[in-house]
Amino acid sequence: MVTRKHKFNNYTLDPIPKELWREAKSLPETKLGFCDECGFYHVDPYPSEDYLTDFYTSYEMPTPQQNLSETARLLAKNIDIKSKVIDVGCGDGSFLLEMNKLGFENLVGLDQSPGIERAMKLGFGDFSRKNLWEFLAESEESGGTNADAIVMVNVLEHVAEPLDLLERFYNIMPKDSLLTIAVPNDFSPLQNAFLKVKGHLPWFVHVPDHLNYFDFGTLKHALSASGFELIDQQALFPLELFLLQDLDYVKNPELGPIAHQRRVMFEDNMKAAGMTDVLDKFYEALAAGGFGRDAMVVARKK
Ligand SMILES: [Zn+2]
Fold first, then answer.
1. Least crowded by CB within 10 Å, which of 9, 21, 206, 262?
2. How open is the CA angle 272-107-300, to the nearest 5 degrees?
3. d(CA 9, ligand 1 centre) in Å
4. Which residues surround ligand 1, an ion (CB under 5 A)?
5. What's residue 60's pLDDT?
6. pTM above 0.85, yes or no
């Protein structure tokens, strides 16, 4: 693989301050900025593979994957119910469980974390203990995968050189198959507004687990640079709205659960009203403006 050159005109964080290194030994030389070559924000330099392996063996990822039902509905409306869906990094199988509830049965899940044991007991699908690198290597060896859709929820922000990863997926996927990606929507307009008003550090920077910071525009660009065409997108609730209304959970973390509850209440009420379709439309409209805490997209291999 060719080594990618990275190009930063200036850095947003130089270096990344100690308090943004979560649960890990900080690498004092690491900076963060918008890379003109890649077209998104990422750390510079990327930590070594050894450092990352060490980090992930000593640190158990939290399970922040909320709103998997929203991601499942987004994918489901773009594919046939008989489609084969592979969730790469499926954790305990929660996303595929949502797909299964929607009537999908040809479901494959891969993960190396302990959650995979629980996934194997769900009673549907084909789960195995395997990481995404092993899956890629095997698929490259065998001449590709026959998946109709590959799913990566909260993966792309964690890996060094994500454009390389997207290209490898492009090479193993059948033409017209779909790639579904969910990432945090970072350096987004409302976050930027709050940063300007309050002068906080960018609280959404989490190193070393998050190495890349995408928004809707840069994610679309990364996909298209790797041979994928964006066909659908949806946001999740813009939590920054609470910050701009002075529910400052960055400064006062004890306010976090209140913000969370209000967001859940909003979604539950929409669903209770039988208006899940309107909720999806609302989040779709937010995505079109680049708003929302998370970005979910469906892209087709050209
Ligand atoms: Zn770069």
1. 9
2. 85
3. 11
4. 6, 35, 37-38
5. 60
6. yes
